[in-house]
Design brief:
Layout (H helix, E strand, L loop, with lengths): L3 H7 L2 H14 L9 H25 L5 H23 L5 H12 L3 H13 L8 H23 L12 H9 L2 H19 L2 H12 L1 H19 L3 H29 L4 H12 L5 H9 L5 H31 L6
Helix pairs in contact: 1-15, 2-11, 3-7, 3-9, 3-10, 3-11, 4-5, 4-7, 4-12, 5-7, 5-15, 6-13, 6-15, 7-8, 7-9, 7-13, 7-14, 11-15, 12-13, 12-15, 13-15
């Protein structure tokens, strides 16, 4: 694996701001981001990538590559939590295993954005329809995780914690991040279809401001991730190992799926990153509400304190190396 892409990724402004945020906690700086701003920037990033993705989907159309790729993305988000659940059951109960597995079956939009920035810095082309895969991969893992609890949990679980399928679907499909991302995707698609002048009007907001907002958001993520690090002591070596092994394992599967789909290097990296990332927003929100038996310190500390920084600092260049090694091989 070449060392240059890793250095370029580490020295990219978003990653540097993430590290600056983490270092501020380690050195006990009084740097603090007011609570409403990270939420605002999170919503902004979802709106911008959804809008731009909708435009790109309209431009590219639903080609022979788009639908198989989106279908494979959904399939991966159904399979990954099942694999994770089987591994985690070696050490944890049903509730914690299902909650952690769901987090690793879902995705991280910020990791996806970081991968896009990495591709742009490397001047590697990618298609906007991959945003569709991002939107479609967040919910299935939540559904799988909750169904695992429903069917594998002890029979004497209190009635107040019984889950209804309608509630599971509502939480999975209409949580705030999924709703905003899908809605923005549709708005971008309709704007590109019927009102192209609207794209130019939105450009200063969704284009030029995007990189700076990403840096600011990652500054806050660095602070939050570093604050979560002490809680990893409670997770134990098994879960810490899982937080590194599972993304690498999922990336390895993902790159072969990308090769089977004949994806180009840029799209392949985004597909692999989606497989290898883990949710620290939507899934924890769903699990806290529906599976209170699971310890949030497990699935939040590992995804946010370990897997997320690993992916944006080292994981993305490693996955790019995997893509460059495996994709050029003869078709499967």
């Amino acid at each position: 694996m070449e060392i240059n892409p890793i250095l370029q990724n580490v020295l990219a402004p978003p990653v540097l701001f993430f590290l600056i945020g983490a270092i501020s906690v380690l050195f006990k700086s009084d740097l603090e981001i007011p609570a409403p701003l990270p939420k605002l920037f999170s919503l902004y990033l979802l709106l911008a990538i959804g809008f731009k993705g909708g435009i790109e989907i309209q431009k590219s159309g639903f080609t022979d590559q788009v639908l198989p790729t989106l279908s494979a993305a959904i399939l991966m988000s159904l399979i990954i939590p099942l694999i994770g659940f089987l591994i985690l059951r070696l050490k944890f109960d049903v509730f914690n295993s299902a909650a952690i597995a769901a987090a690793y079956g879902s995705i991280s939009a910020v990791t996806f954005i970081s991968a896009e920035s990495f591709l742009e810095s490397q001047k590697i082309a990618f298609d906007g329809f991959m945003v569709g895969a991002l939107a479609l991969m967040e919910s299935p893992a939540i559904i799988v995780g909750l169904l695992l609890v429903k069917f594998a949990a002890p029979k004497n679980r209190p009635k107040s914690r019984k889950m209804h399928l309608s509630a599971i679907l509502h939480e999975s499909l209409l949580n705030g991040s999924v709703y905003l991302l899908l809605s923005s995707l549709i708005v971008g698609f309709l704007t590109a279809s019927s009102n192209p002048s609207g794209i130019a009007k939105m450009e200063p907001f969704t284009g030029q401001l995007f990189y700076g907002a990403e840096c600011f958001f990652l500054l806050d993520m660095g602070i939050v991730a570093a604050q979560r690090l002490p809680r990893l002591k409670n997770a134990g070596s098994f879960l810490i190992g899982f937080a590194i092994f599972m993304p690498l394992f999922n990336a390895f599967i993902g790159v072969f799926v990308a090769r089977f789909l004949s994806l180009g290097p840029g799209n392949a990296l985004l597909f692999v990153v989606l497989c290898a990332s883990a949710s620290y927003l939507a899934v924890p929100a769903a699990m806290r509400m529906t599976v209170p038996e699971a310890k949030s310190s497990y699935y939040i500390s590992t995804t946010l304190g370990l897997t997320f920084p690993f992916n944006i600092v080292l994981g993305i260049p490693i996955y790019m190396s995997l893509v460059n090694t495996i994709i050029p091989l003869s078709p499967l």
